[in-house]
TrEMBL record:
Needed for flagellar regrowth and assembly. This is Flagellar assembly protein FliH. Keywords: Bacterial flagellum biogenesis, Bacterial flagellum protein export, Cell projection, Cilium, Cytoplasm, Flagellum, Protein transport, Transport. Its main location: cytoplasm. InterPro entries: Flag_FliH, Flagellar_FliH/T3SS_HrpE, T3SS_Stator/FliH. It is found in: Cytoplasm.
Amino acid sequence: MSNKAGIIPGDALEGWARWHPGELFPIAPEAEPAPEALAEPIDGHDVAAERLEDDAEPPESSEPIAPPPAYPTAAELEAIHQEAWQGGYDAGHTEGLALGREEGREAAHAEAASQFDTAFAPLSELGQRFEGELVRVETELAPSLLKLAFELASELSRVTVAANPDSLRNLLAEALADWREELARARVRVHPDDLATVRAFLEAEAPATVWQWQEDAALERGGCVIDTRTVSLDLSMETRRAVLAAALGLGDA
């Protein structure tokens, strides 16, 4: 069999290869990602949990859905504004009244205090003058009053001594306590009405003493005079009264 013109049989060719279009413009191979850039392994449990959550249907809520908030109208806003203004006005009015009352009370108190001081000034001056006069009168009358009181006490003592002989016994007991050693021999001058009382007491209290008795009507009752060789005890009412008057600054009372 003869070959067609221009056609070379394949088995007659040697050293040929199939041509591909990319051989004219070769494509660079893609670089493999570095080991550090690889994604982290995915946990199988996390993926499963996410799928379960995606597949689960959201539970229906039993609470009613709240309606959208209603905004106040212009009239309501005006009413709120008027109410707030009125409340502030009333509060300020009340506070102003209270402050005014307090200031009024303070002013009235200050005015009353000023008027009182003005009215009281003459009385205060009069009181000071009276106090000064009282001090002067007391200073002038004090000696006279003291003397009068002393005289009244003296008269009262005379009456008391006459009615109570024990006062004379007490006086003699004090004398014996201080002068017993000096009373070996003594003379006693005493009012006649007191002789029995004095004699009975001294003879009982100092039996070793030699006593001489002398009645003296010039002496007041309630006292006596005891004379010894070394000492004289003037226990008369007159002497005791004079000593007390001198101590009080009354002189010869």
